[in-house]
Amino acid sequence: MSCIRFQQNINKFIKSELDAEDMDFFVGHAKKCRECYDELEINYIINVGLERIEKDSKASFDLKGELERKLKQLEEKADRLYKFNVYNKIVCITAYTCMVAVIILSMFDFLGIF
Ligand SMILES: [Zn+2]
Prior knowledge:
Blueprint: H1 2-8, H2 10-14, H3 20-32, H4 34-54, H5 63-111
């Protein structure tokens, strides 16, 4: 099942259009599943290589190295997104807690408890 999901996302990865929720899965699966990594490598070399040939680009043809760098960048991006989401949740929980505390203290003040 996860191999199918990975392979469905190969073209999105090559076009740098992978959804945020698929990034972490994609990098993790590429690291642990050799068959899918090979499939990714073949697709990457064919798609990017043909595009370079069509454009007669003078850019590097170290496509295997380029793929590894692109996966590493995606891993770092997925890690930053994960940390951002965790910090975002902490900030939201802190803000809600402060709002509840203010409401409770206001009620105590209104009732003359303090
Ligand atoms: Zn796989």
